[in-house]
């Protein structure tokens, strides 16, 4: 029994010892765990503190302004925010609302932006204007994010000064929309405004007028007084025009000497309201001004179109006003012309011709007519002028005076001009091969062709392809194109001359020739303009000019061809004044190649045989006649 008790006690003791041991172990383990947890917590706290310090430093040192607003008022601002708003220190900004700082024009936007916030979502950057504390305005870019701070919604704002970028943007925008010389709106801005105005006028059933203005003879003033004087003139004219406008009107410069007025119709009961403004502008422009010590008076030609009657788009209105302006010029400059239905028909025709001209060469619709040039001593045909014709399949024959300017505008004069040179060389060679004596065929060069770098090579190519003697080709330069840019034209003429071709100046007497250049042109002939020839027997002044041109040409060793001779009297007078050659309906109209061959077969055309030359006594004939 004792031994069983003993055994039991011993077992109890063993179990108690084991329990104690287990408890001690547990105690030790939980102590360790506790210490590890404590350690971890301390580490986490340190990490958090360090991270907060880092973020605080980042916020403090951020180059962007950072502000926190709670319940609408700024409760935190960093140093950059103080700099941005011109505060001494960040604390100076505390208590302001974002609306206090927003510029008046942006307040509504800023108010909306501060409401339109979603928790923890960064809102897209907006660009607004804000006040600095000194009251000046700046442009800022601003990003916002809403978050909960002490159980309330707060907004964090990051802002940056973008005033310089905005200034540059404005400057670039101004450059893109304004003319650098006069500061007036340019064509881009004008088109924009016209489009806006059309939308407004359509909606409110209003009218307005567009006036296209071109300064008369600006080019001549620019060339003779110099470009600086030309610039001063343009600036003066721009100022004067602007000064005549009402606040609802505008003026734009859309080209060298081209301006457009945009005139609102403010008074519905007064249909002539615009015209008073237009009259004021015309009068202001033509007030004399002093340029380089010279008193200069410039006039202008105006064409006007009205919305909605003449056009419903900016382009159509400008086109109509432009067409009316051209008519005003034709009427003799310094005139105002309103657009009318006749002009509409002309515009429609122009658009049609522009479209069809593109295919005229391919469709073989172009052809050359030839007009003889006759020696006034012998009556012999000494040359031919090739004149372009366009046989339109539906509209019939179109005059070169109508389609050549179109070809120039559209950049088609190069292929067309090339075709003319090629065709004239081919035809001339064909006549020679058919047994006709050598003859020179003259071809007109458009001013645009003269600027093309490939012209000399092209002419050389045509001569060699057709094996035509270069002496049988003459190239006619217009007087104005030759005088426009003599420094380019003189070397070009020399290059062409080197090929062996002959050169002449067309329409001489109309293009304000500068004698200094004329003597340096390596030319062979001057063509006396038809406007003098037409009046040579009736107007002593035209005869005086013709006499002077003939005399000067002979002194320079040049031949003179009188253009557009139509009557016996003209021919006789020209013979008496020692003019070398004549061309005109008197001898023959320009005719197709087959008909021209019959003239060439004749060799000579009859000269007048009787009657005294009129006006012979007005200016004694002094120069000996020269051969052809
Ligand atoms: N009233 C009257 N007119 C006469 C008389 N004799 C000739 N004419 C016309 O006067 C113009 C003379 O040509 P232009 O001065 O070179 O003036 C030409 C020239 O500047 C241009 N042109 C013609 N063909 C060409 C060409 O192939 N290329 C270029 N670039 N221009 C050309 O077109 C202008 C007009 O040519 P066209 O209509 O053929 O008109 C021609 C001719 O038909 C006359 O006695 N009385």
From TrEMBL:
Gene3D superfamilies listed in its UniProt record: 3.30.70.270, EAL domain, PAS domain
The EAL domain, residue ranges: 350-604
PROSITE patterns documented for this protein: EAL (PS50883), GGDEF (PS50887), PAS (PS50112)
Residue span(s) of domain PAS: 51-86
Domain (GGDEF) ranges: 206-341
Reaction equation(s) it catalyzes: 3',3'-c-di-GMP + H2O = 5'-phosphoguanylyl(3'->5')guanosine + H(+)
BP-aspect Gene Ontology terms: cellular response to nitric oxide; regulation of DNA-templated transcription
Cell membrane among keywords: no
UniProt keywords, alphabetically: Coiled coil
MF-aspect GO terms: cyclic-guanylate-specific phosphodiesterase activity
Domain of life: Bacteria
Coiled-coil boundaries: 5-32
NCBIfam families: GGDEF, sensory_box
Protein name per the record: EAL domain-containing protein
Native organism: Noviherbaspirillum sedimenti
């Amino acid at each position: 029994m004792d031994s069983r008790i003993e055994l039991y006690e011993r077992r109890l003791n063993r179990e108690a010892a084991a329990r104690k041991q287990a408890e001690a172990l547990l105690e030790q383990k939980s102590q360790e765990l506790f210490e590890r947890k404590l350690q971890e917590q301390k580490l986490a706290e340190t990490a958090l503190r360090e991270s907060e310090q880092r973020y605080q430093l980042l916020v403090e040192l951020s180059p962007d302004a950072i502000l926190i607003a709670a319940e609408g008022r700024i409760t935190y601002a960093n140093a950059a925010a103080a700099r941005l708003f011109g505060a001494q220190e960040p604390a100076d900004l505390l208590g302001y609302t974002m609306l206090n700082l927003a510029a008046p024009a942006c307040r509504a936007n800023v108010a909306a932006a501060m409401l339109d916030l979603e928790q923890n979502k960064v809102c897209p950057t907006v660009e607004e204007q804000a006040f600095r504390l000194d009251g000046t305005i700046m442009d800022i870019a601003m990003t916002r994010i809403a978050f909960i701070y002490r159980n309330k919604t707060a907004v964090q704002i990051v802002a940056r000064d973008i005033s310089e970028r905005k200034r540059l943007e404005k400057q670039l925008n101004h450059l893109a929309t304004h003319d650098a010389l006069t500061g007036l709106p340019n064509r881009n801005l004008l088109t924009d405004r016209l489009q806006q105005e059309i939308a407004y006028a359509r909606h409110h059933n209003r009218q307005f007028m567009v006036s296209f203005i071109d300064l008369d003879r600006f080019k001549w003033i620019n060339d003779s007084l110099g470009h600086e004087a030309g610039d001063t003139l343009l600036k003066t004219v721009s100022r004067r025009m602007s000064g005549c406008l009402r606040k609802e009107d505008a003026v734009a410069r859309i080209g060298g000497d081209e301006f457009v007025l945009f005139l609102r119709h403010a008074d519905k009961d007064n249909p002539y309201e615009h015209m008073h403004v237009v009259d004021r502008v015309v009068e202001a422009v033509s007030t004399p001004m002093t340029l380089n010590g010279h008193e200069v008076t410039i006039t202008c030609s105006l064409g006007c179109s009205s919305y909605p009657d003449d056009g419903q788009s900016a382009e159509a209105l400008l086109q109509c006003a432009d067409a009316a302006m051209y008519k005003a010029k034709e009427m003799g400059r310094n005139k105002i012309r309103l657009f009318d239905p006749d002009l509409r028909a002309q515009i429609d025709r122009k658009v049609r011709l522009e479209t069809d001209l593109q295919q005229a060469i391919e469709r073989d619709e172009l052809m050359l007519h030839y007009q003889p040039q006759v020696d006034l001593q012998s009556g012999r045909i000494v040359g031919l002028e090739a004149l372009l014709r366009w046989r339109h399949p539906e509209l019939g024959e179109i005059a070169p005076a109508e389609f050549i300017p179109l070809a120039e505008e559209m950049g088609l004069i190069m292929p067309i001009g090339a075709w003319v040179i090629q065709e004239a060389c081919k035809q001339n060679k064909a006549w020679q091969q058919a047994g006709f004596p050598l003859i020179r065929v003259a071809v007109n060069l458009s001013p645009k062709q003269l600027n093309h770098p490939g012209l000399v090579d092209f002419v050389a190519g045509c001569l060699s392809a057709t094996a035509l003697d270069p002496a049988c080709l003459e190239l006619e330069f217009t007087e104005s194109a030759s005088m426009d840019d003599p420094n380019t034209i003189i070397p070009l003429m020399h290059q062409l001359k080197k090929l062996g071709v002959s050169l002449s100046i067309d329409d001489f007497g109309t293009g304000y020739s500068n004698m200094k250049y004329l003597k340096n042109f390596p030319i062979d002939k001057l063509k006396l303009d038809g406007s003098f020839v037409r009046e040579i027997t009736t107007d002593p002044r035209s005869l005086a000019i013709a006499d002077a041109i003939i005399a000067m040409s002979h002194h320079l060793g040049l031949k003179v061809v009188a253009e557009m001779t139509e009557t016996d009297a003209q021919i006789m007078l020209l013979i008496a004044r020692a003019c070398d050659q004549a061309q005109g309906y008197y001898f023959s109209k320009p005719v197709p190649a087959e008909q021209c061959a019959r003239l060439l077969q004749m060799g000579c055309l009859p000269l007048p045989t009787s009657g005294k030359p009129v006006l012979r006594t007005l200016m004694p004939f002094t120069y000996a006649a020269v051969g052809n």
